[in-house]
Amino acid sequence: MLVIHDPKLESSGERVRATSLIERGGKASSLWFEVDTSYSEYIAADRADAFVLSCIFPALASGEDITVRGTLSPRLFYHLNHNLIPILQLYLDAPRRISVAADRLEPMRLPPGDGVMTGFSGGIDSFCNYYDHSGDRAPEGWRITHFVYNNVGSHGQSSAAEDEQIFKKRYESLARFTRCAGIEMLAVNSNIDAVVGLPFDRTHTLRNAAVALLLQGRFSKFLYASAFDYAHTRVGRCPTLGYLDPVILPMLGTERLECVPSGGQHSRVEKTRRVAEIPASRELLDVCVRPDKVAPGFINCSCCWKCMRTAITLAAMGKLVEFDRVFDIDMVRRYERIFLLDALSSRNPLQGEVMDLIRDSGYPIPRRISLIARFLPGRLIQRAVSWLWPRMIDRPRVSEVIGLLLGQSPRL
Hints:
alpha/beta; eleven-stranded mixed beta sheet; 15 helices; 43% helix; globular
């Protein structure tokens, strides 16, 4: 059994930390979230909502029931047991359906919050979400009032110290945009990554929603920028949690806070077109999943799968040159052929969108890449690319050899 206690607040200098004691298998550990002290009144310190949501995945993975020695919001309690846990059990193919129990079920005794919060990472989804919920494009009560920038596992998952360093560096970069936009941005630090123990892309929605639940003392809505359009929504086993966002996000709220999926009405290509029209994106767009490989002077590594997908989308739109301050275009060209080979054989709908754009725009696909994709089984290509790509990133000599085999110019 996994036991979660109500959080306690501790102030230290300019930061305030909400910490919950977690008991599991006879051992005790702490899960914490930390914000600037000026935002301490935003924290829902009288309940364990954020901490329970943080522990759902590790509990499911090990088949442990959860007991809350404290207070849980009734709406969240209901959806956890009746809807969310059964859905996530299918998603993880977990060994058993767990349950959540709590000593007390009580809604917050405060007037409703009036803030609208959303995460902002500087990526395609978050820039598009900002575009859709600012100015006259959203009605009163749906316009973003606050950004949150979280250290919950999206900064490399290498080590806690390295991830925190990248988190702080990225925050300072993005803060320039949020100040110009006139929107406050909260930085939220946490050790949730050590608690969840699963890859970020498999668990990201619950990690970020946990931060929203922590801050529900101030907000009425949490807009979550989803990765996939509604046509790709599904329940069951799938590669990443984003496929489930439109289904599970409404289950993550409370009587006080509504969690809302955002962006599912757009394809990834449509989002990229919108983002390309935001001048700040040409200096701040950050889509990278390998921040440890970013060269000085750039925002993105320009060679991981996510950088390549975005960069080639922009290239097919004739926009890549406008983003030469965030992408190393020479690096993009070095990995372009292996990306195209991967995309031609992939069943990923986002890769499929890029290929549709490439075909419609007339963006050139090298003949050698087309022939390989035509005559080799897609599953074989996918396995080869999955094995080769990280080795190419870590060993430049390997990337040169593979590039030559794929017909890449030797000057790169």
